Amino acid sequence: MLIAITPRAWKDARKEHSGDMKLIKTLMAGLAAIVIAGGFALSAQATPITGILNIAGTANFNTPSLTTASSATFADVLVLGGNSGTFAAFAVGTPVVMASYTFDPSTITNGLWSVNGFTFNLLSSTVVSRSATFLSVSGTGIITGPPGFDPTQGMWAFTSQNAGGRPHDTFSFSANTEAVPDSGVTLALLGAGLMGLAAFRAKFGKV
Questions:
Q1: Which of 13, 89, 100, 142 is the most exposed place for a label (fewest CB within 10 A)?
Q2: What phi, psi does 125 have (nearest 5°)?
Q3: How many CA atoms, within 13 angstroms, populate the side-chain half-sphere of residue 85?
């Protein structure tokens, strides 16, 4: 069966088709703008803490031998030289506040060290090597800073030497930071845009 299409009906159909195309283009442009704006917003907010911070002082362990020591308290902790990134401008000799630290077993310690508005929150640690006169511990945590800095993952190393069983021991602590992974907002926005595009393509295919 043949259906006759009048010139006016054909013109109206083309007009409706053109309107759908304009709507799709407008919505696609809006979605793209949202994704781009979201990406710029994340970039503007993302100010990770970078570089290495070196500090040292004296540690008082709970046993004379580092073979059996499991915790320590600290005194006279100061910033050393050789720092980089965010910490590059830290003056040598700046006092550092340190909390008591239980490393065996691994214990979460908020505010393990704090200096110039930056704080290291310990999440986990592992005893790498120990003897009666030497202790090496490594671990991970989060470094927070003043407004404008994002909380940043940090990998660190703590070492101490004990000569002749003295209760007070020199220790050194180095924090090496790495950026926190993207929160996923950018990918979510991109995914929403792609799903919207697919939906409108499906609608257009039925016209």
A1: 89
A2: -150, 160
A3: 16
- Strand locations in the chain (E): 52-61, 71-79, 97-98, 101-102, 109-115, 118-130, 134-144, 152-161, 168-178
The token pair at 24 is 């799709």
Helix (H, G, I), strand (E, B) or coil at 187: helix
Task: Report the C-alpha gap between 153 and 139 in whole angstroms.
Answer: 11
Quick: pLDDT tens for 151-187: 999 888 888 887 655 554 566 667 677 544 444 433 4
90: Cβ contacts below 8 Å, ≥ 6 apart: 53, 79, 83, 115, 116
Sign of CA dihedral 25, 29, 32, 34: negative
What confidence score (pLDDT) does residue 35 get? 44
pLDDT, tens digit, 9 for 90 and up, residues 108-139: 999 999 999 999 999 999 999 999 888 999 88
Candidates 136, 138, 102, 142; CA nearest to 122 is: 142
Tokens at residue 50, please? 């970078």
